[in-house]
Amino acid sequence: MRLRKTGSILSLLASLTLLFPAPAGAADNTITFGAAISITGKTAKEGEYTRDGYQIALDKINEMGGIRAGGKTWKVAMKVYDDESKSERTAQLIEKLINEDKVNLILGPYGSAPSGTAAPICEKYKVPMIEANGSAESIFSKGYKYTFAVLSPAKLYLRGLIDLVKAKDPTAKTVAILGENEPFSKEVAQGAAEYAKEKGFDVVYHELYPTGTQDVSSLLTNIKGKNPHVVLGSGHLQDSLIIVKQAKDLGVSPRAMGFSVGPSSPEFRENLKGNADFIYGATQWTPALKYEGTDPWKTPQAFATAFQAKHPDYKVIPYQVAESAAAVWAFAKAIEKAGSIDGPKVRDAIAALDIMTFYGQVKFDSRGVNIYKPMAIEQLQPDGKKYTVWPEKVAEKAALYPMPPWDKR
Amino acid sequence: MAFAELSQVFVNALLLTGILALVAVGFSLVWGIMNIVNLAHGAFIVLGAYLTYALHEWMGVDPFLTIPLSMAALFLLGYGIQRLLINQIIRAPLLATFLLTFGLEILLVNLLNFFFKADLRSVTTPYSGSGFSIGPARVPYIRLAALLISLFLVLALGAFLRRTRTGRAIRATGMDIDAARLTGVKVAKIYAVTFAIGAAMAGAAGSLLSLSVPFDPTAGSSYTQRAFVVCVLGGLGNVVNVIIGATIFAFVEVFVGSRLPSLAQAITFALLVLLLIWRPQGIAGKSV
Amino acid sequence: MRPRILRALGLALGLAALLLLPRFVSSYKLLTYTRLLLLAVMAQGWNFLGGYTGYASFGNVAYFGMGAYTTGLLMIGRWHVPFFPALLSGAILSAAFAALLGLPILRLKGHYFAIATLGVAEALRQVADTWDSVTAGSTGIDLPLKTEGEFFYYTALGLVVLGIGLTFALARSKVGFAWVAIREDQDAARMVGIATTRYKVLAYALSAAFAALAGGVTAYQNIHVAPGDFFRIDYTLESIIAVVIGGPGTVLGPLLGAGIYQLLSTYVWSHFLELHPTVLGTLIIFFVVFLPRGLVPLFRAARSLRQSGERFRWRSLFANVRAHRVT
Fold it and tell me: Which of A224, A369, C139, C144 is the most exposed place for a label (fewest CB within 10 A)?
């Protein structure tokens, strides 16, 4: 009796599997990009941004007729696997993409650790990878020739905020930094600490907490005792949310509070509501920046509008989407220049690339890092919106400084 | 450590104790009565959190009022899982149930990921973040309420197990299954009720946690681990043991965390291992 | 006599096929099979302790990570130790550490032992995470680049064969009998004069050594070792799953279970982009419900039925299910 029941569940599941046919292989006038992105696991959300960013650029290229290279017009397509947010899985997926699915080029995973795992495999097969979401410099110190990153390196993330505070308030002297103990956030924290000292601040607190920490009240209690003027957090979205929530719980009220990752994503305000006000966030890109590119979208605003039209569920466009789309566009330009989809030739074309896009300048140094595009700082303000407030010359609005104490707002 | 800081750390630890006890009590019950290490316990907690989130966000129900609802829903789910699946293999070697709950965990987490997406969620109310001060220490209302509700639920479960007919049947089954069967206890049903209560407690813990910690579908596994540790610290067999285990864990974690955050878990676990070597049955557990 | 010759022939053929495999498959497939074999090595290690003596460790990944770091640090350190000596050092160090640690923690029983091992793994992970001067903290260390897939495949295959040989020999020796006696009833075993502690420590040290070997090879193939990747509890869980699928306390169970789990999960994730964990979870649940004791015991049951002249029917399988049900 019970067995019959379980049998029927089994057949139901079997029929479910028919709903997901395997995608067809690539035709010979199609360039297939391979990507191993987090769909499940810890970075699934960021993986979704990455995937949507790649996809909108690929769709745009196809809409415009494809890539013309070597006297041929190529359509573009993408083959995706889920890396489950585990970087050791990435190696296997990149091998499969290159080796079995015969993809032509690789679009990077989300995160520094998987990008680091993917790089040597791309090197082995001489398949270039442009990655849009791994900015720890440790990836690029190993002399890989086939790995490029369109985004600014980790150490620069929080510099703008230190400059901003310096400009607004010469009396601000002390900085507390708390960061997640993982390669990217560690580099962000180090970069911020070095820069703050360079600018004459006193770093009164600099601690790393383990990945997955769900309670930072002990760290914040410690910080409260030091009463710093600036609190900087380098971690991921979850960490930023916990820090803000518990900072309010414990009454930690610095003059400025900012994060490397978190405030730029729409979930930040959704989760914190009004408590998100006055918080700063580092960002690789915002729709408010004033770039004039040669790509199909040309300006950040136009890209944002086009993306929003396709994905109305995004209330804010996270920068991961833009940098991912920029990576695809960089590939398209390099393929055009190379006149071929042959790995080494495309690689040389990428290395020589210097284009202006809606995302900013895309140009790589000898390590493959795009050091030519600056970072920006955004602030969430009480009118419920988010404004680019730094660098000063592209700012939409002045920063609201200082942040009022929690009990007076 | 300055007095102000010390008192705040003390309050933090105290507030963590209640919720940890609630996180662990269902896990402890299922483990103690049926010898099942339920790896899906954390997934149940997250499910409770999502239920509160959905009811609050989409229907405007106050998060505290959703607790009975998420308990009821998890109770039914737990009952079904035990009846249909775990009861089938409960007499197989221990690792079989372990593997089954592992399968259950990845399935539940993935379904949550599929339907709710991977977005981080949290439940924010107008009273979120407000609180009062005792001397130099801040006490947020929500976490205080969570402490009180947790303690109430844990103690209520203890009373239920001691005073009611069903509760006594559960404890009898846990002590000696054959003797219980002889006195007319329907073991399959009692097992299902036990697992269901464990799941309901997890649901309540999830509802309360959603108010103070942001969560996504993968948030559960760390709670399973903590529940595991709390049970071992306190020892099985009694809800008071769970509270003792939770208190020790919370205080060690918070105090170590305020001094050496990057080594907090290492030190907590090292203390745990030492403690186990010293008292293999847990601090409160009776040595056999 | 004849079945034994047949079995030996079968094993030889199987081994020959495994030796020739790299000539016929893509390097992706080779990597997948290498991962499979390394999982089997870890599962074999777990089986010594968990399968034979009944002590379920939840922290074998501690030794996986320790092996990975020892191998890596020796290779890149001042002495540039070659790979195999470095790998062996990792295994010896891990076994020694486990033996020392085992003396106190093997006194714990059941879940208490499990949680202690889990604690050790977590503590080691954080040590690797924070000990910047030696392990480079969460940034991790980089090993010399080696990309020949065959090298790793044959290394892993060699370790699996070593594991099978060792399990086979030990299971039939005094050691194996002592282990099983401990599993069935530790007090009785002690009473008939078995030095239980010594045998348990031996099993634990062996299990640590095998985990370390798997870790060292994985490290070299991965070229980057970081705490977040090499102390992940998933490695422990997967090795337990492999043993439970194959059959705990059997010689071939770990390899069989690792093979099934690895191939199944690879198939599932390459065909279901979003819902692969749901499919895998469902398959695991059904597997346990129908085969709670694993595959090897099922084959044994089938063989003994055949020897007594009966046919193996589905009914026998369901009888197996019914035996474990509570009503």
Answer: C144
> Which H or E run contains C76?
helix C61-76
Strand A376-380 to A386-390 pairing: antiparallel
Other CB atoms within 10 Å distance of the CB of residue A20: 14
Contact at CB, A5 and B84, closer than 8 angstroms: yes
**Mutation choice for C interface testing from A155, A182, A208 by most C CBs within 10 A:** A182
Instruction: Tell me if chain C has a CB within 8 Å of the CB of B84.
Output: no
State mean pLDDT over B132-158. 92
Token pair of A79, please? 């083959």
pLDDT of B171 reads 93
Residue A195 tokens read as 């820069």
Inter-chain touch B5–A40, beta carbons under 8 Å:
no
pLDDT category of residue B1 using cuts at 50, 70 and 90: low
Mean pLDDT of the C115-143 span: 89
Q: If 0-12 CB within 10 Å is exposed, 13-18 middle and 19+ buried, where does residue A344 land?
A: middle
Q: Which residue of C has its CA nearest to B281?
A: C112
With contact defined as beta carbons under 8 Å apart, do C100 and C252 qualify? no
Task: Decide if B78 contacts B34 (C-beta within 8 A).
Answer: no
| Separation in Å, CA of B273 to nearest CA in chain C | 5
Residues 6 or more apart from C225 whose CB is under 8 A from it? C68, C69, C72, C140, C141, C143, C219
- ∠ CA A337-A339-A345, nearest 5°, is 80
- Ranges of residues in chain A with a pLDDT under 70 are 1-27
The span from the CA of B177 to the CA of C71, in Å, is: 50
CA distance A51 to A80: 9
ipTM of the complex: 0.87
Query: Hey, what's the torsion of the CAs at A277, A280, A283, A286, to 10 degrees?
Result: 50
pLDDT of residue A213: 83
- For residue A95, give the nearest of C27, C129, C139 by CB distance: C27
C131: nearest CA in chain A?
Answer: A181
Compute the radius of gyration of chain B from its Cα atoms: 19
What average pLDDT does range C168-182 have in this prediction?
94
Please list, in sequence order, all residues whose beta carbon lies within 8 angstroms of the beta carbon of residue B231, skipping any fewer than 6 positions away. B24, B27, B28, B31, B242, B245, B282
Preferred mutation among B100, B101, B109, B274 to probe C, highest tally of C CBs within 10 A: B100
Name all chains with 3 or more CB-CB pairs below 8 Å to chain B: A, C
Element containing residue B166 per DSSP (H, E): helix B165-175
Chains that touch C (3 or more CB pairs under 8 A): A, B
Task: Judge whether B94 is closer than 8 Å to chain C, CB to CB.
Answer: yes
The pLDDT of C253-282, averaged and rounded, is 92
Number of other CB atoms surrounding residue B139 within 10 Å: 18
Burial of A312: CB neighbours in 10 Å, binned 0-12, 13-18, 19+: exposed
Distance CA C215, CA C61 (A): 8
Return the residue in C120, C126, C131, C234 with the most chain B beta carbons within 10 A, the one to mutate for interface testing.
Answer: C126
Confidence of residue C156 (pLDDT cuts 50, 70, 90): very high
Q: Which pLDDT belongs to residue A105?
A: 96
Which of A39, A81, A92 has the CB atom closest to C32's CB atom? A92
With bands split at pLDDT 50, 70 and 90, how would you rate the model's confidence at B285?
Answer: low
Dihedral angle computed from the Cα positions of residues C95, C100, C102 and C104, in that order, rounded to the nearest 10 degrees:
-170
% residues pLDDT > 70 (chain B): 97
| Beta strands A105-107 and A129-131, pairing class | parallel
The answer to whether residues C16 and C161 touch, using CB atoms and an 8 Å cutoff, is no
The string of pLDDT tens digits covering residues C58-99 is 899 999 999 999 999 999 988 899 999 999 999 999 999 999
